[in-house]
Amino acid sequence: MELSYWEHKSWFSHVDFTIIGSGIVGINCAISLKEKYPKSNILILEKGSLPQGASTKNAGFACFGSASEILSDLEHHTEEEVVQLVQKRWDGIQRLRSLLGDEAIGFQLHGSHELFPLEKPEFYEKCLASIPYLNSLMEPIFQQKPFDTSNNCFNFANIQEKYITHQLEGQLDTGKMMRSLIQKCVSMKIPILNGVMVEEMIESNGGAIIKTADFEFLSKKVFVATNGFASKLLKSETVKPARAQVLITEPIKNLHVKGTFHFDEGYYYFRNIDDRILFGGGRNLDFKTEETTEFGETQIIQDRLEALLRNMILPDYPVKIERRWSGIMGVGAQKSPIVKQISNSIYCGVRLGGMGVALGSLVGKELAELVD
Ligand SMILES: Cc1cc2nc3c(=O)[nH]c(=O)nc-3n(C[C@H](O)[C@H](O)[C@H](O)COP(=O)(O)OP(=O)(O)OC[C@H]3O[C@@H](n4cnc5c(N)ncnc54)[C@H](O)[C@@H]3O)c2cc1C
Predict the structure, then answer these.
(1) 309 to each of 26, 60, 124, 200, 297, how far by Cα in Å?
(2) Which of 41, 51, 254, 280 could form a disulfide with 246 if both were Cys (CB 3.0 to 4.6 A apart)?
(3) Nearest residue CA, atom 21 of ligand 1?
(4) 198 domain-assigned
(5) Residue 225 is assigned to a structural domain of this protein
């Protein structure tokens, strides 16, 4: 498609910064760039009619790492790396809250609880015994000992007697957060062009040529924030797609569950929202099939989610499922995101993993700061 003179002049000439991807990272990067360079010409390009990766699909946990996840991470990362990552998640949430305000993102601090199924008593005991160690690692970040135990006050079935509670984890309304971020871009005069699939970037004199399915243009700098889809544009980086499936119940009368909950090293997670239970996970049942950029649900995972919902989360309630969906995350051997310069004019902030709500604002800011 040829761009008209008007289209070229009004949207695609003298572009200083182009961000590819309008998820939480891309939008935060654009906002940070505009704050630093108020006169700059910024464009965000997004392949979907809405953001179409993870940022509008997630569970809205403002989480920093459960006890068992941190213990598992410590098997593959140094203490310093693990602490640094938790610190970044904590900083990311604080940045998001101060950027948009708690009301605009529906932030609520109800704490989070890790549940332990009955089948693994040794694992439960190991996690309980690690609480003092984990608290000593995490206290400098949170200025208090974050982990504690609580009784099964929500009457979940088939679990061990106690939860491990993180006092400072909260929840937010994902839809409100993303609408507020997009609104912030509009108010800062940063256009988001939807339905634009970027196919290639080529270094050139004075910047990079961005080739989309329909047209191409020159941008002085390009920021790739495509997370689970990153390997398409960034051949040198190892980011694997990881699909995550979710369901939500119909409203439940007198729902007594409040907070965010997870089990199985974070592979399953649920929360209350609008008198419903949102429940996701089960990727570990079928890693191979879930390593995909295709959206969709599978029988094996949906059946498992429903069984757990009925047998563990809401054992006495004939619950109905209202909606199911999936999102695509970006994962790799390392849990930390990749934030770096790729070439003269191209930068990336990708591989956000399963806690990008907490991390995303900070990664977006760090990505913007790569430009001097
Ligand atoms: C089901 C689910 C539940 C989750 N729950 C939580 C949670 O409770 N708490 C938490 O912290 N994290 C959670 N996460 C993870 C979190 O949502 C992600 O880490 C975060 O949203 C990543 O943000 P991002 O901006 O890096 O990527 P994305 O939101 O995926 O944004 C990337 C964008 O790039 C666009 N794009 C890709 N390729 C192109 C291209 N070639 N051209 C143009 N546009 C392109 C995509 O359409 C997409 O909109 C969850 C994820 C999923 C899927």
Answers:
(1) 34, 19, 21, 43, 17
(2) 280
(3) 55
(4) yes
(5) yes
Domain of 348, in residue numbers: 5-57+176-229+335-369
Q: Is residue 353 domain-resident?
A: yes
Q: In this predicted model, what pLDDT tens digit does every residue of 201-217 receive, in sequence order?
A: 999 989 999 999 899 99
Structure tokens at 143: 């200025």
pLDDT at 169: 96
The pTM is what? Answer: 0.96
Which residues sit with their C-beta closer than 6 Å to ligand 1?
20-26, 45-48, 51-55, 57-61, 63, 197-198, 225-229, 232-233, 244, 246, 280, 327, 329, 352-358, 360
Å from CA of 47 to ligand 1 middle:
13
CATH (domain of 195): 3.50.50.60
pLDDT band, very low/low/confident/very high, at 317 (cuts 50, 70, 90): confident
Residue among 47, 90, 193, 223 whose CB has most ligand 1 atoms within 8 A, to mutate: 47
Q: Is residue 248 assigned to a domain?
A: no
Number of domains in the chain: 1
Atom of ligand 1 minimally distant from the CA of 60: 8
| Residue 245 alpha carbon, nearest atom of ligand 1 | 1
